[in-house]
Amino acid sequence: MSTIHWTENRTRQSARWHSENAAPLPRRIVVADDRMNADDAHRQACEGTALLWQGDFHNARQLLQAMGRRLDRKPAKSGLSPSENFHLHRRSSRHRARVLGKLLVLLEDDYRLTLRRAPDVRQACLEAYGPSGGPMAVSLRELLGVIGAHQWRLKGVAVPALGTRIHPHYGVFAPVRGEYVDLVARTSLPRAIRRNPASSTAFDLGTGTGVLAAVLAHRGVKRVVATDISPRALACARENAHRLALTGRIEVSGPGLFPEGRADLIVCNPPWLPARPAGSIEQGVYDPDSTMLRSFLDGLSAHLLPGGEGWLVLSDLAEHLGLRTRQQLLDAIQAARLRVVDKIDTKPRHPRSMDTTDALHTARRAETTSLWRLTP
Q1: DSSP, res 263
Q2: Which of 94, 54, 61, 91 is nearest to 76 (CA)?
């Protein structure tokens, strides 16, 4: 944690600085309130000045939205390749996040937000950040994400394959795209599991919320070991296993990728886009240099029992964006001395695939999600 300083009523003030996206410490901070208009806020934020909000909470949200509209005015460029369009979109998104991240709020010792008409954010912040270590400044944009994540955690995400809900934690990828869950729920299990389910073992690598581990246990796999590199994901998976009364069937292990031992089935749903995440929140979407994908492929044979299978759940969105070719994926499979037994495809059903205003709409419309069945 770093410390920020500002002057308020001629008094020097300080607080810890926190940013999930690892945004740098603001160099200059001014106090802002309901008298500030969106044009001034946008200009100062673009110049690098952070605005510590001391006015009405709902006015702050409206100001943030108005600043966002000013950033969205720039027309999209035409004639770009899919790869160029993606990288331009990423640069624009990072710039947007930097500018909007300059509107700050101060959380007190117990995560109280003392702004007028502010909601009670103490439980949401405790879930996201852990015990408070004193007053802390965060961007309003991040805090709104924390509040939204708390609501997701309370109500959960419906998973038809389980007939119940999975409850995601802050910073853990929520299973809102049901097609990849359905692929794991409907694909025929390896013969070894079908013949002797009472002694069957499966690994779920990069488990996130634990949804795929729960699906495998729901399908009759006796023992499922779920792993992840994220402490938040490990805590989330354990909580969901407890909610579903599956703690006797699901063992959560990590941080790491492969657990010790071998399994009849190893499932991996790595981040689908080989690009660098802007922060820990994006690690469920972006896999730099396809590191997790390659680690799964390279380690699969050594962790499979005789007759076992590896299931790679992967979208071809990266191919449509020009970030990875199909041949590069096949070459990686071959280099790992693996054979493709089958590939089961499905089309996405999420709303963004039909959103024509999305900068990546053309690629999303053509996207296919596949379950690759692999054996040594």
Answers
A1: E
A2: 91
> Residue 354: pLDDT above 70?
no
pTM for this predicted structure: 0.91
For residue 324 the two structure tokens come to 């990875």
User: CATH top-level class for 156-375?
Assistant: alpha beta
DSSP state of 23: P
Digit-coded pLDDT (tens) for 115-171: 999 999 999 999 999 999 899 999 999 999 999 999 999 999 999 999 999 999 999
pLDDT the model gives residue 352 = 66
Residue 328 has pLDDT above 80, yes or no: yes
Between CA 185 and CA 189 the distance in angstroms is 9
Tens digit of pLDDT for each residue in 72-83?
877 767 788 889
- 3-class secondary-structure state, position 341: strand
Decide: helix, strand or coil at residue 159: strand
Closest alpha carbon to 171 in 312, 259, 285, 1: 285
One DSSP character per residue, 100-129 reads HTTEEEEE-TTS---SBT----HHHHHHHH
Residue type at 197 in one-letter notation: P
Q: Where are the domains of the chain?
A: 2-153, 156-375
Residues found in the chain: 376
Contacts of 196 (CB under 8 A, 6+ apart): none
